[in-house]
Amino acid sequence: MKTQLIKQLLFFVIAFQLGSCQTKKATVDSTKTEKKVEKKESKYAEGKMTNGTYFIINASENLALEPYQRQYNSLTDLNLAKLDNSAIQKWVVKENINAKTKKPNGTFSIYLFVDETNAIANKYNNPRLGKTKEYPKDSFVIEYDETGKSYIIKSNSAKGDCMGKKDGRFAKYIPNDGSQAILWKFLKTE
Questions:
Q1: Pseudo-torsion of CA 54, 58, 63, 65, nearest 10°?
Q2: What is the DSSP string of the chain?
Q3: Whose CA is closest to 121, among 85, 168, 163?
Q4: pLDDT-derived band at 44, boundaries 50, 70, 90
Q5: How many CA atoms lie within 13 A of 157 on its CB side?
Q6: Using CA atoms, how far apart are residues 175 and 13, in angstroms rounded to an integer?
Q7: Which pairing describes strands 104-112 and 90-97: parallel, antiparallel, or unpaired?
Q8: pLDDT value of residue 174
Q9: pLDDT reported for residue 169
């Protein structure tokens, strides 16, 4: 009986020693080692222009487009004023659809937020806010400028001139001179 007890005790000690020799798996707290990379979404549009409602801000002076004298029915020049996030400074950008193919054609219309019957139009070489019945509606190619993180708004009816701001307080069609005067930021509205 003593020998059997000694055998069992010896077996237990050997088994315990073998068990302690096994490699231990390291446990790692994944919350400490994982780095959460959150992509912060920009408040400005970037890349290819998409349909939406935006504040359109001149990159060189940080001023927002709004109708002349803040009138919804104004048919005169577009003012540039300090951004105040009011509805009078909101613009709807919509990609035009080809009538035959029913697919987007790469040009955009820009409407005052209040109503699609009000649109930026071209008259006397200035971008205008006008009712489509009274003025021909303009369409634009809106190209992203990666270096400036902003857009160039080229008019189709003004023979490729861009909407810009040079001298004075109005937005005008000006030649694409590569300056900041033709760069615009599109601030997303809520």
A1: -50
A2: -HHHHHHHHHHHHHHHHHHHHSPPPPP--HHHHPPP---PPPSB--SS--SEEEEEEETTTTEEEEEGGG-TT--SBEEEE-----GGGEEEEEEEE-TTT-SEEEEEEEEETT-TTEEEEEETTEEEEEETTTSPBP-EEEEEETTTTEEEEEETTTTT-EEE--SSSB-EEE---SSGGGEEEEEEP-
A3: 163
A4: confident
A5: 16
A6: 91
A7: antiparallel
A8: 84
A9: 74
